[in-house]
Design a protein that fits this description.
It is a single chain. By secondary structure, the protein is mostly helical. The protein has one domain. It contains 11 helices and 4 strands, in the order E-E-H-H-H-H-E-E-H-H-H-H-H-H-H. The protein has helices at residues 8-39, 46-64, 68-89, 99-121, 147-169, 171-181, 183-188, 193-215, 227-240, 245-265, 273-284, and strands spanning 2-3, 6-7, 137-139, 144-146. The strands form 2 sheets. It has a two-stranded antiparallel ribbon with strand order 1-2. Strands 3-4 form a two-stranded antiparallel ribbon.
Length: 294
């Protein structure tokens, strides 16, 4: 069976790959959007935190016997605690300064973390087994769907929608937005604004680690896995609109599918299609698809 002259099995498999990549783009760009939208910090360490999440799962399994499901909770918690340390000891001192200072600091942190892991683990990468409960797959007729990859899409969508709801539809989210826009007023109401800001950065970091654990059984766990992905994720955030929670989710999934479709129609353009879309969007709508015009 063919669709527009393309074998349905090939089209379905590439769209699945695109949807999986889009799920990672959505979770990672969501973390970036939360940190930038609420804290005005361009967190270039996000890719390193994604890598840390994968390594925490791998090392906890190898040396402590921690299974995948526990690692899915342990890794985000561990990287979130590291995020607390980073925000309280470094980023807090840059509050109120130009965005460039935060970008340079987090970029330096990313290089340090990546260099340390290269020194201890090299760059060849190690495999991480998917849980036995998610082994195998389902024959859909036109393609074979591995269960773990289906789980990745569902888990990523669930986390993204939960984060969007908490920030956009609850009183906690309203308090977070108020704390970044009018910290003096919120502080006068008896709310500890510095704690809220630190918690926000920790949540953004934990989302990156969560994506890292999801990615570990699919990709090789290596120190450069984050740096290979972070530039694309920044492009996704720019297209969706810097700081837009909904924009990061929708754009991440959509661009993943477009990337997968491009690999079928014109494979040579698949590596640059997201950046071409970014250029077009910035020319037509500088604030991004879901961003607010200045």
């Amino acid at each position: 069976m063919e669709i527009f002259g393309i074998p349905s099995a090939l089209l379905g498999s590439q769209l699945l790959v695109g949807l999986i990549n889009g799920s990672f783009y959505a979770v990672l760009s969501l973390g970036l959007a939360i940190i930038f939208g609420l804290l005005n910090i361009i967190n270039f360490a996000h890719g390193a935190q994604y890598m840390l999440g994968a390594f925490v799962a791998l090392l906890a399994s190898k040396y402590l016997g921690v299974n995948y499901w526990l690692a899915l909770l342990l890794a985000p918690l561990t990287v979130g605690v590291l995020g607390v340390v980073i925000e309280r000891t470094m980023l807090q001192r840059l509050r109120g300064l130009d965005h460039l200072y935060g970008l340079l600091l987090t970029f330096g942190l990313a290089l340090i973390l990546e260099g340390l892991f290269k020194n201890f683990f090299g760059v060849s990468g190690e495999s991480y087994e998917a849980p036995e409960a998610l082994s195998g797959g389902v024959d859909l007729g036109f393609m074979f769907l591995p269960l773990y990859r289906g789980f990745v899409v569902v888990a990523a969508l669930g986390v993204c929608l939960m984060a969007w709801y908490l920030i956009e539809r609850t009183s906690l989210g309203a308090t977070l937005r108020a704390a970044t826009q009018r910290p003096d007023l919120v502080q006068a109401l008896g709310i500890n604004v510095p704690v809220l800001i630190t918690a926000t950065y920790a949540v953004g970091s934990a989302l990156a680690a969560f994506a890292g654990v999801l990615a570990a059984p699919i990709f090789q766990v290596n120190p450069v896995m984050g740096s290979n992905l972070i530039i694309v994720v920044f492009a996704v955030v720019v297209i969706g609109g810097m700081g837009s929670i909904l924009g990061s989710i929708v754009t991440g999934l959509g661009l993943g599918l477009i990337e997968g479709l491009t690999k079928v129609v014109y494979p040579e353009a698949s590596a640059v299609v997201i950046f071409l879309i970014m250029v077009i969007v910035l020319l037509l709508r500088p604030a991004g698809l879901f961003g607010k015009q200045a």
